[in-house]
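To make this tangible, we now present a fold written out as tokens:
***
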Amino acid sequence: MKLSNTSTQLHVVRILEVLIVAGLAVVCTPSGAAPTMDSPAAAHATRTAARVPIETRITSLHTRLQITSTQESLWQPVAQIMRENANTMQTLLRAREDGASHMSAIDDLHAYAQIAESHADGIRKLTLAFESLYNSMSDVQKRNADQIFRNEGHHMGRKG
């Protein structure tokens, strides 16, 4: 089955959404506002990220996407960007948490903006790397990837 360019782009975008969520630990409350680090949502995200280290998520995703030896050179940049994104998010979230008790509302908004900007930068980097990998996949692999992300979506980090 040959996918149209638009269809392929939509599949790539969907898969990237899940990769970003799996690789990045940015948490928002349902209203879209940044939670305080002592909120239940932030605590849950921290516990989830601690239970499923980035290396475990990367290994699981590699296996489940059935990356072949010929695709390994395309997978490695994806995995490295996931590591870098996770490290960046962890650093920014920790800094925000450490300063939360003395931040003004403006300081908090600036910190959250920095997290959001880093998240967007990470998405851009990951998009470029993952698109090359996705385009190299067989139709069977693409359908598998689509199904993995469609069915598990943003819960991948918890399922490891």
Observations:
- The CA atoms of residues 20 and 123 lie 6 Å apart.
- The chain is about 75% helix and 0% strand.
